[in-house]
Every structure is written in structure tokens, then in C-alpha cells.
Amino acid sequence: MNVEQNTIEYKSLKKINTGDRGFKELAVTCVCLANAQGGIIYIGIEDKTLEPPKNQIIDIKTINDAITRLRTLCFNVSIIQGDIIKHENGGEYFSIIIQPSLRSIATTSEGKIFVRLGDQCHPVRSEDVLTLATERDAFKWELQERKVTLSQIPLENIEWFANEIRKSDRVKDIVKQKTDIEIIEHYNFISNGLLTNLGILWLGTPLQRNKLVYPINVQYIVYDEFEKKIRKEDWNDGLLNPKHLIEDIEKQAIELKYYDEFPQGLFRNKVYHYDPRLLRELLINAIAHKSYTISGDIFIKVYSDRVEITNPGGLPLGVTNTNILHKSIRRNPDIIRVLHDLKLMEGEGSGYDLIYEIASRDSKSFPIIENDFSSTKVIQYSKILDAEAVLLLDFIAKNYQLTQKEFIAIGIVAREQKILSTQLSKSLQLSDEDRMRSYVNRLVDQEILITRGQKKATEFMINPKLIASSKINIKPTLKLIEPHRLKALILEDLKTYPNSLVADIHKRLVDVELADLRKTIYEMVKDGILSHTGGKTYRKYFLPD
Known about the structure:
Blueprint: E1 8-11, H1 20-34, E2 39-43, H2 60-73, E3 74-75, E4 78-86, E5 92-99, E6 107-108, E7 114-117, E8 120-123, H3 129-143, E9 145-149, H4 155-167, H5 173-176, H6 180-186, E10 190-191, E11 194-196, H7 197-203, H8 206-210, E12 218-223, E13 229-235, H9 242-252, E14 259-264, E15 267-272, H10 276-288, E16 298-302, E17 306-312, H11 333-341, H12 352-361, E18 368-371, E19 375-381, H13 387-399, H14 404-416, E20 418-420, H15 421-427, H16 433-445, E21 449-452, E22 459-462, H17 464-470, H18 483-496, H19 502-508, H20 514-526, E23 531-533, E24 540-542
Parallel strand pairs: 1-2, 12-16
Antiparallel strand pairs: 2-5, 3-6, 4-5, 7-8, 9-11, 10-11, 12-13, 14-15, 16-17, 17-19, 18-19, 20-22, 21-22, 23-24
Helix pairs in contact: 1-2, 4-6, 10-12, 12-14, 14-16, 18-20
């Protein structure tokens, strides 16, 4: 049995046998699904076993009564009776089908609004109602029928798409064995003998694509160092399907193919200003998550130090710039399925895990996301933050088998040199320590990272022994100085410069982090190693007689 996912829920029969409370909870689930993509609720399944109790019997009256009761507790929710299903253990359970609410917002009878985000139900805030209303149209757009029949579509377009699907290792054999027409039916390109918007997007002629309400139009603009426009390319004629459009943009965007080289022994390490995989993910995201019910082009703006990609429509409801690494909300599920199966997308999520991994490997800042109701802008800077970190990460990649999560984490540590666990957790967009363990535990076990301190004061650093074995000429830094050595350094400094403010000491020990310096000085005063004069603001430190 499948586990719960975006469109599937399992509920115990107790939900409808415990009176109003159980029904109200079930009504919330119905509203959640209706305000997303619809779904199926299987009733009669126990949470712990994901099976019905043995010999559990379901009668039609139970189903009819349940559906009647739920319909009184939900507004704008279409609930359809499903099937009675017999499990292999002999127990029975039944399904109800929740249709997506495409023309209105579903609510409970109490007027509360909920929406399905991932595999969880969440209440909708008043400020998100407008976004939710827009999302309704977006779900409808893909499968909306056009007055175009199969006979009006070039046969070679259908053959091309079917062959692309058959070549993909992401597609099941049962789909590959279908006829060409069955394949395009499988991907919802046709409905009732007519092409859908999705079908026109992939199979249509240029004229048919241009007749879509808001087709995919792209503008590529290059600016010089003074931000003066020097080149522009655009794709607004509907000549290309999404796959060919992406490939042509990548071909024309020569400014995004520049790179830097770093000496590494007898060889030179090449680091692109913008990794091709990162750019493809950002471009695919713009196409996959664009709002097709809002007018506007996709803009790719190339500056001397950054690239900005803007697409119509804000981030999907439930996704923010502080959780995008872990949230997977699909605004256009059918478009995303096609892009995934054609191997244009890294996965069926947002793709930001790959984007973060590449940025970490290349020692670059993570993309900056600016979002409002009408558009989403992603800004990626080209600057390499630490060239030595690039060489070190390349050495680690060649000598250790690390997961994507681990590369993201170690990339952050490498460019920061030393980072508190709380800061690392924030960079990884994590809300609890347990989740961070999957990023760092193996790195510590393999002695790639070392730690200092405990709990929230834990600091992560690259193991100096690993740096030494890499034979990379990395300059030593006082950022990583051990506490006892820092104390000795402060003593030597104050012997030469007595009666110094913390700020004065920091100017001479500029590589030491100010927070570490203050902490160590305060400890030395507490232990009687240092003395001071003055109040808290202008306190001067010296060695006691």
C-alpha cells in the first residue's frame, strides 16, 4: 500500500464512528485536498499498520451516511463515492474521491479554509487567500481543452514526443509500450478528442501556441558593467516546444558559459561563472512554476556579477525563501511530470537541493529569492567566495563518497572556515537538530569535519589533517585558532600594548572573530589572568602585576 502523499490520505474507520469530532477532522482533510489537486481518502485503514483490521466489514449504508455527513460539513467540495476494497488480510475499507475545487475556494461549514501543502494540511491565512484563488486557475490551466483536434496537429510532433518518452529511463515500460496516441493521452495532452493547453504547449504549431492566453515567452538581456543594455534575444514566436526552447536558450546564452581556471598541480581546475546544470535548473524552475494565468514574460538578465531570472507569479502557496530547500509544492503538476520524465528536471521537487549543492561545490553564495504576488526573481552571483575552498572540495569529492546533503553542508563550512551549529542550521533552512544530523554526522564520523564546543555552542570546522593531506596551499587563518593558543596570543599582545580596548586588540588580531576574542578575554578576566579598568563601554585590559 502506498504511503500518504500529496493526493492520498488514509483514515481509520473510527473517524466516522466517533461522532462530530471525527467527521470535522475528516472534513478538514476534504477541504485541504479540494483546495489543492484533489485526491483520494481511504477510510478504514489504521495508522500504525496501514492496513484495515482483519475481517473488518464495510456496508453501503456506512459509506452513504459518511458522504452525506461530510457534504454538510464542507462547502464547494465535490465528494464522490469510490470503491469498497478488500485487503489481503480479509479486512475491508472504502475510498472517497475529492475533486479539485477549480472555480471556487473550498471551506468547512464554519468558514475555515485549509490547503494541502506536501503531505500536510495547513490553515490558510487571510493574506494568502488571494494567492490561493490564483492557484485555482493555475491547476485548471494545464488541462483546459482547446478547440484543436488531433488532425490539426503535425504528426511528426506526436511521433517526436512519443519517441522521447520511450528513450527516457525515468518512464515505466508499461507506458513505453503504449501507442503514440495512448502516450499523449497518458500525459493529458488530449481530452475528449481535443488538445489541452498542455498538449498545445508540447505538440502544437507556432500559431496554436501563440493563441494560448499566456504562452511561454522568454527575454534574454545582457548588460555591461555600467548596467547598460548591450544585447537582447527573445523567444516570443511560439516556434519551439519547451524542450527545444530550453536547449536554444542555453545555446544562445554565451555570456553564461564563461569560466575561471585555477592551477591544481599539473592541471587547471575549471569553475564556470554559472554552472550549466545550475542554470538549467533555474530556467526549468521558471517554466515549471510559472503562473500561466498571469501575463508576463520570463526574463533572464545577465549583469557583470550576477544573473537574474524572473518569472510571472509568486512562489507556490506554502513555499518561502526560507524553506525552499525542503518544500516541494507543485503549481503545474502535469507540466512538471512531463519535464521530469523527459529528464529535463533533476527531480519532481523544486530542484533547489541540486542548486545548493552546485553553489556549495563552487564556493558561491546561495541564490537570493525575491518574491511577491505577481513575480518570483532568483538572483545568482558569479563571484567565487573562496578559491581555496573550491580546490579542497574537489579533493574531497575525489576521495570520499558523499551525499548531496553532505556536500551542501561541507561547502558552507569550507567557505565560512568555522561556523556555529545554529548558523549552519539556518543556512540549511532546518528547524531542528535532528534533521541536521543527516547533513553532518557522517562528515564528523569520517573526520572530514571536526567539532568544538557543545549543544548550541558547537562549532564545525574542516579537519586540519584533511587540509594537510590534500596538499593544497591553503593559507593558515586565526579563525580556527584553538582557545589555549588564542589566550597565549592575547597575553603576548597585551605585553606589548597594555591598557587596550577589545577593539584595539581586534585590529591587531584581525583574523580572529570578534565574538571569540570577547569570549576569551572575559574568561581570562574571570580566571584572574587579565585585569581591566573603566566601565563596560570603555574597558581597557592589561596584565596584572
